[in-house]
Amino acid sequence: MIQIYKLTKRHMDENEKMPRELKDIKIFSTCVGHGVGTIDFSEKILELSDDEFEEILSNSGEYVKFKIGNLSKYFEVEIFPEHAARLIPQLVEGKFKEILLNLKEGYLVLRKDF
User: Fold this and answer.
1) Tens digit of pLDDT for each residue in 24-58?
2) How many C-beta atoms lie closer than 10 Å to residue 46's C-beta?
């Protein structure tokens, strides 16, 4: 199964018992790169079966095969708008292409699920 996530909004793990001052510190330190909490910026927008994904790869151009073809090897691929612009002309019609057509900012993450 291939899961596709899109940068949409920010969610912070909440600890109801944490004082407001410490929550502010947690947000700030997470934003500057210290691992004190989890921020989830993405939301799952599509799932593709392995067969659907293989069909996309086999019916698309060389850049598509290069950019997302190694998903089985690396288990995660990021797609930014500049990648989408190169993928779209070589991509077979379908839901994934529609998503790329609407990617104007942020990014997508493709993850291979076991």
Assistant:
1) 776 666 555 544 444 556 789 999 999 999 999 99
2) 16
